[in-house]
Task: inverse folding
């Protein structure tokens, strides 16, 4: 019998008469907000990039039989104000980007799509101001975003970006171009100081958007396209 999915609430009732929403799912498989440091440590240890997006602020753990088996991190895009060039009139606090996702290898079918779907259900409840969520499938995953297709995201084309790999850590090209000493992070400075050892890669990225408010889709400034066909071994547990 299929387990019923539902919201997970705190045992404490707030001043507004409802307990705080903490997660969503079934007794066996669910997502739940976890400590930021725990999320960051997990991603740094397990994600192929070895890095986190510093402004992620929603940190969801995926639990199977109460064991942590994955992490999803949501926040604004690298350039938060870029949302206005994607969906007309979107404010910087009205959208999210799935900045990082990693799931442990397991025998659970469709774990990736289930994790994303449960995360979206949770965000709808906990953050009702969010109107759409963007994510990019990376060709390093071995596919064109089949996980997002399974979650009914809309597809808005691909582009090629430059990434740098240094000591097993991946950086977007932006990290190589920052010159403002007040804005550069220690890891970005390390990359620039060791540029001669860094390896440059040109990688395809595939843009997907999930509209939580369907009215916003009509405001999208990008052209929706048919899903690209994925190739062999396209299951990706990372984003």
Result:
């Amino acid at each position: 019998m299929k387990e019923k999915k539902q919201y997970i609430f705190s045992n404490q009732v707030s001043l507004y008469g409802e307990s705080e929403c903490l997660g969503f799912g079934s007794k066996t498989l669910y997502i739940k907000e976890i400590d930021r440091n725990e999320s960051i440590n997990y991603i740094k240890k397990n994600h192929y990039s070895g890095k986190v997006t510093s402004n992620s602020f929603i940190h969801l753990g995926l639990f199977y039989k109460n064991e942590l088996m994955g992490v999803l991190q949501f926040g604004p895009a690298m350039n938060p104000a870029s949302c206005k060039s994607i969906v007309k009139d979107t404010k910087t606090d009205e959208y999210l980007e799935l900045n990082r996702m990693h799931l442990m290898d397991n025998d659970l079918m469709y774990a990736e799509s289930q994790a994303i779907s449960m995360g979206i259900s949770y965000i709808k409840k906990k953050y009702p101001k969010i109107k759409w969520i963007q994510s990019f499938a990376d060709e390093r995953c071995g596919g064109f975003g089949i996980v997002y297709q399974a979650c009914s995201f809309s597809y808005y084309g691909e582009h090629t970006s430059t990434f740098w790999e240094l000591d097993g850590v991946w950086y977007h090209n932006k990290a190589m171009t920052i010159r403002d000493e007040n804005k550069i992070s220690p890891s970005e400075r390390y990359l620039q100081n060791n540029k001669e050892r860094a390896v440059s890669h040109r990688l395809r990225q595939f843009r997907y958007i999930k509209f939580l408010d369907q009215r916003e889709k009509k405001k999208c400034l990008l052209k929706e396209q048919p899903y690209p066909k994925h190739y062999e071994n396209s299951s990706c547990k990372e984003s």
